Amino acid sequence: MSWLELKIPPPLVALSMGVGGWWLSLWTPVLQAAPQARTVLALGLVAAGLAIELSGVWAFRRARTTVNPLRPERASALVDGGIYRWTRNPMYVGMALLLTAWAVHLGAPAALLAVAGFVAWIQRFQIRPEERHLRLRFGADYEAYCARVRRWV
């Protein structure tokens, strides 16, 4: 399955999982209670997800390094400031929060399987290959960064 590594853009994976979550919501029980509370929670998750994701993009732009997740070998700087002091993958954390917001909005607990699917896919086919490239490119500096900062949160 290594032929799938770094092939599908993470936003497309997230979108696909979101469609899968919606499909699950059609075929599984949906929570009818507290629609306003679900909306408020979903909007809060959207705000948090976008803030975290965009802060990751912003940090890469400031460092003048690639934000293209399919070409990690083009990384020109090891970004370890800003949001990257708390998570090594804020863009993926943000996408996972957006998917969680979608599941909450749908009111479908089964739609949370889409979040788990996203995390599993990104972990296997995106993050691990990215980390291999970053270890080769930045060596001991990247290892020290990994020792300080968790992969997700």
TrEMBL record:
GO MF entry, a single one: protein C-terminal S-isoprenylcysteine carboxyl O-methyltransferase activity
EC number(s) reported in the record: 2.1.1.100, 2.1.1.334
Keywords (A to Z) from UniProt: Membrane, Methyltransferase, Transferase, Transmembrane, Transmembrane helix
Record-level GO BP terms: methylation
A Pfam family per the record: PEMT
Protein localization: Endomembrane system
Cited InterPro entries: Phopholipid_MeTrfase
Transmembrane segments: 12-31, 40-60, 95-122
Membrane topology, from the record: Multi-pass membrane protein
Official protein name in the record: Isoprenylcysteine carboxylmethyltransferase family protein
Organism lineage: Bacteria, Pseudomonadati, Pseudomonadota, Betaproteobacteria, Burkholderiales
